[in-house]
Task: inverse folding
């Protein structure tokens, strides 16, 4: 979306969402599509012309990834039990 804000400023924003995977079933637990991943992200940019030859851009972005029952293996990892709670959502650091 592009939104003019008067003669010298504009806002541009977008939002993205996706659902991936979901092809592994666990019939003994009566669960379907246990490895589905949900992605949600977006960004916004504000541009202001502060003088005839000067512009300023301010941008923000974010993303959320929810991946349940993903399978990871490590050489020295301990086995996980089915009672292990779901992984916490990881939010990226903006520097």
Result:
């Amino acid at each position: 979306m592009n939104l003019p804000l008067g003669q010298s400023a504009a806002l541009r924003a977008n939002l993205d969402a996706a659902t991936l995977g979901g092809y592994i079933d666990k019939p003994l637990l009566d669960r379907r599509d246990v490895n589905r991943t949900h992605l949600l992200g977006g960004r916004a940019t504000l541009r202001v012309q502060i003088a005839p030859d000067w512009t300023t851009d301010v941008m923000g972005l974010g993303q959320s990834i929810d991946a349940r029952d993903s399978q990871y293996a490590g050489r020295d990892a301990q086995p996980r039990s089915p009672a292990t709670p779901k992984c916490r959502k990881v939010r990226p650091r903006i520097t």
